[in-house]
UniProtKB/TrEMBL annotation:
GO terms for cellular component: extracellular space; lysosome; membrane. Zn(2+) 1 binds at D265, H267, D338, H523. PANTHER family: SPHINGOMYELIN PHOSPHODIESTERASE (PTHR10340:SF34). The keyword Hydrolase applies. Keywords: Disulfide bond, Glycoprotein, Glycosidase, Hydrolase, Metal-binding, Secreted, Signal, Zinc. It comes from Sipha flava (yellow sugarcane aphid). Converts sphingomyelin to ceramide. It catalyses: a sphingomyelin + H2O = phosphocholine + an N-acylsphing-4-enine + H(+). It is an enzyme of class 3 (hydrolase). Binds 2 Zn(2+) ions per subunit. Belongs to the acid sphingomyelinase family. GO terms for biological process: ceramide biosynthetic process; sphingomyelin catabolic process. It is found in: Secreted. This is Sphingomyelin phosphodiesterase.
Length: 701
């Protein structure tokens, strides 16, 4: 789910952008994190609670299976510094600003479109580059500008709440800001404010942290690592020594394999209409409500569109028909979420549940008898990203039971009844696929920093990670290998730093048990590496991030096929190879004939000896100097999209760093060496500079 705009409460904060936070107290001094808790007899009560949550593994039967764009951020440091300098000039107007906001609008301001806004707010907003802020929220590539906007908006919202403004007051003011500064169309502004405002106000009324802490929590390292004891916690590991890792040997002979289909981020749009406006001014286009295109260039294609448009039903149908005809030997399917479209300003619970039921019915029809292992995306909730832990909500209208109960009903078309307890509690589960092979599906929305409920308390929501440790420890005792499924990759900026840090520690501890991880969310074709927490030079695990079915946006539709070490003695259950298949959307629309083709096979394309974590680590390091291989990876990352942007040195650093970052918001530790090498490679010596200049001069003669 690359779409960020309007997907979170932070979009409402953008509507309140002011200079409030520029003049608030300084950032608290960072304090050292508390020591990691050690196992004691007191922890047994916690462990007993987790046991009650867990599946009855002893009696659970094995599920038998068949044997057969990177956003390129502009160089904006100079602009940001100039903006901050101008804010300091405006500091003297701070008191006047609040007088105008809390009182009546200045009647002397005659500009019709902004007549109801305080003059100081108007001037301050002109200084902030709102388009840049919106773009950064959309791509999760944040800078100081977004941090400033976040702190300003958060402070302003908290000010309104403390002064007794009602929800209706806040909705009205939010809508006014949104429309006056053309952040979105009036109907999108209205839908967002109505849908999100109640929960945002509910959360902000119940927290005791200021703008600095809020924005450090939401945005991450781009907004400073502000110490906040409320959001510093560690899971507890049992007193069992970590087994000595055994090196996985490269297979020299063919072995039995499982063929696994990975589907992610379908984002089915039931209102997609060919010929409608694909270049609208809203977060989602190509819909009946966008009206007909005013020019041939703006017409929505028959099979989809590279612009901000989701997937028409005919494209999903065609893809599934192609998969059934081409891959007749699929053993099982992993399905990593995000079913509804990106029209999050006018979604309803009823419609999202309808899409869930329709998708499940379609998969059952197309893949009868084939096990499917699902994971929950962030778009299934209404509002999007809203997954309140039951312990934080005392109002039924905010509870998430409506979704989890239906997931339990629909997912158990493929899963055993023993998983019902954890699905209803938190939409996660553990199943024994075959003797010695387990799949664990996590609800990654409890690491989602756009899930504003976690501002109240982010400590291991619904005890999911503690349960995860319990399942892994049992798997280790039983000699099982485990695959982990989820939606948001744990190293992605959308994952909370504290949650990601704990998850990273779990992966490191159970590296001999967890042999593969699978996620979605980004829409790109990529992966993340994990390293030993005691030796960050040793890779221990890899998370594969599958491509999206939706072309949203600038992408070709795609899916992934994995080949996994199958049933044999001492099977590693590791991924031996994988393929990405895509549909060339441009050609499909041009000739009205979609063709799905294999874009690449990993081991052959990258000349890898195997797909072990250490082999991927060497590959990532190789990308720094080998521009040809990097260009090939970049092409695959964008699923061979003809609209992919160029990638400069900053883009390259970000791309390669993402591959090394299984732990979110920790680039200073994980990426410093990589970034230094790229910087060194882009410097031009004086001899090269002189030669290049001389050559250019000769060519001009």
């Amino acid at each position: 789910m690359l779409f960020r705009l309007l997907t979170t409460w932070s979009y409402q904060i953008l509507s309140f952008i002011t200079v409030y936070a520029i003049f608030t107290a300084g950032i608290p001094i960072e304090k050292p994190r508390k020591a990691i808790p050690q196992w004691t007899t007191h922890n047994m009560s916690l462990w007993e609670d987790i046991i009650l949550l867990s599946s009855d593994n002893e009696h659970q039967p094995a599920l038998m299976i068949n044997h057969t764009g990177v956003y390129i951020a502009p160089d904006i440091e100079k602009m940001e510094n100039e903006t901050l300098r101008k804010f300091q000039i405006l500091k003297t107007n701070y008191a006047k600003y609040f007088y105008e906001v809390d009182g009546k609008p200045n009647k002397e301001d005659s500009r019709a479109s902004r007549a109801a806004l305080p003059r100081f707010v108007d001037k301050a907003l002109q200084l902030l580059n709102l388009n840049q802020v919106v773009g950064e929220v959309e791509t999760s590539v944040m800078s100081k500008m977004s941090c400033t906007a976040c702190k300003a908006g958060a402070g302003f919202l908290q000010h309104y709440i403390k002064t007794g403004k009602t929800r209706d007051d806040i909705v009205k003011i939010t809508y006014q800001f949104c429309t006056s500064f053309k952040l979105q169309t009036p109907r999108v502004c209205e839908g967002i404010t109505e849908l999100f405002s109640g929960e945002v106000v509910y959360v902000l009324q119940r927290i005791n942290i200021g703008p600095e802490e809020i924005c450090s929590f939401v945005i991450g390292d781009a907004c400073g690592d502000v110490y906040n004891p409320t959001h510093e916690w560690d899971v507890v590991f049992p007193p069992v020594p970590k087994p000595t890792p055994i090196e996985t040997k490269i297979l020299k002979e063919p072995v039995p394999q499982f063929k696994v289909l990975h589907l992610s981020d379908t984002h089915f749009d039931p209102y997609y209409e060919e010929g409608t406006n694909a270049d609208c001014n809203e977060p989602l286009c190509c819909r009946l409500t966008n009206g007909p295109a005013v020019s041939p260039q703006n017409r929505a294609g028959r099979w989809g569109d590279y612009r901000k448009c989701d997937t028409p039903k005919r494209t999903i149908d065609n893809m599934l028909q192609h998969i059934v005809a081409t891959h007749t030997d699929i053993d099982y399917i992993i399905w990593t979420g995000d079913l509804p479209a990106h029209d999050i300003w006018n979604q309803t619970k009823e419609e999202n549940l309808s899409i869930l039921k329709e998708t499940v019915a379609q998969l059952l029809k197309m893949f009868p008898g084939i096990p499917i292992f699902p994971a929950l995306g962030n778009h299934e909730a209404v509002p999007v990203n809203s997954f309140p832990p039951s312990s934080l909500v005392n109002k039924p209208e905010y509870a998430i039971d409506w979704l989890y109960s239906e997931l339990d009903t629909q997912w158990r078309r493929w899963l055993p009844g023993s998983v019902s307890r954890t699905i209803k509690r938190g939409a996660f589960y553990s199943v024994l696929v075959r003797p010695g092979f387990r799949i664990i599906s996590l609800n990654m929305n409890y690491c989602n920093n756009k899930n504003w409920w976690l501002l109240i308390n982010s400590t291991d929501p619904v005890k999911e990670l503690q349960w995860f440790i319990y399942e892994l420890q049992n798997a280790e005792f039983n000699g099982e290998k485990v695959h982990v499924l989820g939606h948001i990759p744990p190293g992605h900026p959308d994952c909370l730093k504290v949650w990601s840090r704990n998850y990273y520690a779990i992966i490191s501890r159970y590296e001999s048990t967890i042999t593969a991880q699978f996620f979605g969310h980004t829409h790109f074709d990529e992966f993340e590496l994990f390293y030993d927490t005691q030796n960050l030079g040793r890779a221990v695990s890899i998370a594969y991030v599958g491509p999206s079915v939706t072309p949203y946006y600038d992408l070709n539709p795609g899916y992934r096929i994995y080949y996994v070490d199958g049933d044999r003695e001492h099977s590693t259950r590791s991924v031996l190879d994988h393929e990405t298949w895509v549909m060339n959307l441009k050609e499909a629309n041009l000739y009205d004939y979609p063709i799905w083709q294999k874009l690449y096979s990993t081991q052959a394309a990258y000349n890898l000896p195997s797909l072990r974590p250490e082999d991927w680590d060497v590959f990532v390091s190789h990308l720094v100097e080998d521009q040809t291989t990097f260009d090939l990876y970049y092409k695959h990352y964008w699923k061979n999209s003809p609209t992919r942007p160029a990638c400069d040195a900053e883009c390259k650093k970000r791309m390669i760093c993402d591959l090394r970052s299984g732990r979110s918001h920790d680039r200073k530790i994980l990426c410093q060496e990589i970034e230094s090498r790229i910087d060194a490679g882009t410097r031009i010596s004086w001899r090269a500079w002189l030669y290049n200049g001389f050559t250019a001069s000769v060519e001009m003669i």
